[in-house]
Design brief:
Layout lengths: L1 H15 L9 H6 L5 H9 L3 H5 L4 E6 L1 H5 L5 H6 L4 H9 L2 E2 L11 E5 L8 E6 L2 E5 L5 E11 L2 E6 L13
Parallel strand pairs: 1-7
Antiparallel strand pairs: 1-2, 3-4, 4-5, 5-6, 6-7
Helix pairs in contact: 1-3
Length: 171
């Protein structure tokens, strides 16, 4: 798996070399940070590098490598296989909002948000303890680093891969 991830990450990094020379895009920031190597490999395998290099705006809830490692054994390898590109794309689009939503723009309390994967919803809760995101699996991710600013939006680092499924409870 590590070889597959490294190869895909290398391909994504090569593709990013043609990006803007000034401010970094979401894709460029992710490719330059080893904590996101699995995410970068997935974005490359799904063919979404150009999208995350585009003008945006986007908010990306970016899982770290440990979040991918916590998935059941074989999940990442299966998603990275070419025949599973549509499923991988859906999982990744579940992590993207087509607005620039810095943490201060997220309202207090629990609210539904519509990711780019339009058939799904996320429940984002902001309170005194921080920001958490409930997904379709009934589990929640925590925002561990907020507001990494990019030229085309913002990245919020999360500790769990968000999975589409049932509409999360949001109360």
């Amino acid at each position: 798996m590590k070889t597959l991830i490294k190869a895909a990450a290398f391909a994504a990094t090569a593709a990013l070399a043609t990006g803007a020379a000034n401010a970094k895009t979401i894709a460029e920031i992710a490719s330059g940070d080893e904590r996101f190597s699995t995410l970068v490999a997935a974005v490359s395998a799904a063919g979404l590098v150009d999208t995350l290099n585009s003008e945006g705006p986007f908010t990306v809830y970016a899982p770290v490598n440990d979040a991918f490692a916590a998935l059941p054994a074989g999940t990442v390898e299966t998603l990275l296989e070419p025949q599973n590109k549509e499923q991988l794309t859906n999982v990744l689009l579940y992590h993207v909002d087509d607005r620039n939503l810095p943490a201060e723009a997220i309202p207090a309390g629990s609210n539904y948000f519509k990711p780019v994967l339009a058939s799904q919803r996320l429940c984002i809760t902001k309170d005194a303890s921080g920001v958490s995101i409930a997904d379709g699996s009934g589990e929640s991710a925590n925002v561990v680093i907020a507001n990494i600013k990019a030229s085309n939006g913002v990245i919020h680092v999360i500790d769990k891969v968000l999975l589409p499924g049932n509409r999360p409870a949001c109360h």
